[in-house]
TrEMBL record:
The keyword Metal-binding does not apply. Residues 69-392 form the Sulfotransferase domain. Pfam families: Sulfotransfer_1. This is Sulfotransferase.
Length: 420
């Protein structure tokens, strides 16, 4: 991803970024598009003129945000990211946002949930990095450019999954709930709180010591390098991975339309000829790229990257959470502990209600895919994703009996030591 800003700009002019340019024009706030000058980023001397011409227009943050920890949860859909998000959302000194990139995607690439065009992908990534940079600086007005309809008087009721962010459901943003309430129902927040006042949301963000953002729309860690290297940020990435077989199973249950052909396969025992295989292989490729980068320990990730397997977290939530907080250099808040205690024991009857719910018996659920996928589908997944299964320590099965024998775990003990 060297000098990718240049590619982004070029492609932006050539492709769908006409919209992006429009947003940029109408945005009152300075637009942070350029990476920080860094000889490691771009070859020394090379391109500096162009760089300065672009960057001079966009001043750096003027206030001091270096004391904050900026936490990024890099995940994919149905990998347990709501669960991990809660480990930060519940912290009283963390401002948490649930997937703000949803708005970037729906604005720039409407209709396509997984655009395969490289140009679209580049534009989406460039815009995503800019938005993340702004959000970590508590500039929530920046997000307004992507919300439809555009907020009036800095107020909106269209923020995606607003109720998933505790900070946006409690004072000063909303007075309907007390600050110590552990389980605010997402729907209740949306019902009881007035439309979201972005000015108050900004205040809430600035009051808190740390900012955590969960994203599922950035494919791999290399795409975030410009942010990791940005000295204005103190970015730490928690990459969440999960057994691709578990992800597939969970997506089949959740995204019923998009994964319809997989359900047909499961029901009939025959693989449909027009099955979109990329719905599975993209997960494996993105994981493989990220994990290979992360575990090769490049200098730019030093102290900034931790790989977490969802299954480990599900098995030992409190212990794993402590490790994560230790890596971040943050103290674990009692609200987080309380949340873990109330939500990770057998409370299965609650989970069915919520598509994205985190309330569940986590350990039992992490491997329950084995009872839901057919052996054919599992075998097929093992054939197309062998490397990543091996690298992450997920055992393959060789017979339907092995698959269904739950007393035999498929998760190998494996320690991924954070790169400090
Ligand atoms: C920003 O915060 C850091 C860490 O507290 C401090 O060392 C530095 O002097 C501050 N810079 C400014 C301009 O206030
Ligand atoms: C926005 O604020 C202005 C000035 O306070 C007011 O006149 C206008 O009605 C507000 N618009 C909406 C949609 O609330
Ligand atoms: C949003 O909150 C700010 C700060 O309290 C206030 O000044 C502003 O009037 C509020 N906006 C609306 C539309 O209520
Ligand atoms: C299930 O696996 C356990 C542990 O390896 C083994 O002892 C047991 O015989 C297996 N059960 C069946 C029905 O295969």
């Amino acid at each position: 991803m060297q000098c990718s800003w240049k590619a982004v700009i070029l492609l932006a002019l050539a492709s769908i970024a006409i919209q992006y340019t429009a947003i940029r024009t109408f945005t009152a706030k300075p637009f942070q598009i350029c990476p920080v000058p860094n000889p490691l980023n771009c070859g020394l001397g090379q391109d500096t003129d162009a760089f300065e011409r672009i960057c001079d227009e966009y001043p750096y943050f003027t206030y001091n945000i270096s004391r904050k920890t900026h936490i990024l949860i890099l995940a994919t859909t149905r990998s347990g990211s709501s669960f991990v998000g809660q480990l930060f959302n519940q912290h009283s000194d963390v401002f948490y946002l649930f997937e703000p990139l949803y708005h970037v995607q729906t604005t720039l690439i409407p209709r396509l949930s997984h655009s395969k065009s490289t140009a679209d992908r580049r534009v989406m990534l460039g815009a995503s990095r800019d938005l993340l940079r702004s959000l970590y600086g508590c500039d929530l007005y920046f997000l307004e450019s992507y919300i439809k309809p555009q907020p009036v008087n800095h107020t909106t009721d269209k923020l995606f999954r607003r109720g998933a962010s505790k900070a946006l459901c409690s004072p000063p943003v909303c007075d309907a709930f007390g600050p110590s309430e552990v389980n605010i129902e997402e729907g209740d927040c949306v019902k009881k709180c007035a439309a979201l006042n972005m000015t108050l949301a900004t205040e809430s963000c600035k009051e808190r010591r740390h900012v955590a953002i969960k994203i599922v729309r950035v494919p791999e860690i290399g795409d975030l390098r410009a942010l990791v290297e940005d000295p204005r940020l103190n970015l730490k990435i928690i990459q969440l991975v999960r057994d691709p077989r578990g992800i597939l199973s969970s997506r089949i249950e959740t995204f019923r339309d998009t994964y319809r052909l997989w359900r047909i396969w499961r029901a009939t025992g025959r693989k449909p000829y027009n099955l979109d295989l990329s719905q599975l292989t993209v997960v494996c490729e993105d994981f493989l790229n990220s994990v290979s980068t992360g575990l090769s320990r490049p200098h730019w990730l030093k102290g900034k990257y931790m790989l977490v397997r969802y299954e480990d977290l599900a098995r030992n939530p409190l212990e794993k959470t402590k490790e994560i907080y230790q890596f971040l250099g943050m103290t674990l808040d009692k609200n987080v502990v309380k949340w873990i205690q109330t939500n990770t024991r057998g409370s299965n009857e609650l989970s069915a209600k919520h598509k994205y719910g985190t309330v569940r018996d986590s350990a039992a659920n992490a491997e329950s895919w084995r009872l839901k996928l057919s052996y054919d589908m599992v075998d097929y997944t093992q054939t197309v994703c062998p490397q990543i299964l091996h690298q992450l320590g997920y055992k393959t099965v060789n017979s339907p009996e092995e698959l269904k024998n739950m007393s035999l775990t498929l998760v190998q003990d494996r320690t991924f030591v954070p790169f400090l």
